[in-house]
Amino acid sequence: MNCNSMYNDKELEKELFDEFSSRYAIKLFHYINKGFSSDKKYYLETFNNEKYILRVTNIDGFEKKKMEFEIVNKIYNLNINTSKPIEYGCCLNNRYVYQILS
Length: 102
Known about the structure:
- By secondary structure, the chain is of the alpha+beta class.
- It has a single domain, classed as Phosphorylase Kinase, domain 1, CATH 3.30.200.20.
- It contains two helices and five strands.
């Protein structure tokens, strides 16, 4: 099951914006159509000019994404040039798993 199973792309984008805008004071939010994974990726920029990538996939990928987030965190803590892991969890009523990276 992919990210489109519950929502079409615009509905998913709106729901994600609504869920994350209260936590991150988002001024820019748009879909990124790049990469090889099946994750949906979004660019977020806050009113404080902080820039993030939001990666979202179906909840079926929870364990895989948890492990991926932990690996990125270990690599980051070794001072290797990689994205900074910010947050990981479930969203949209536990239907999706997300990662926020900077």
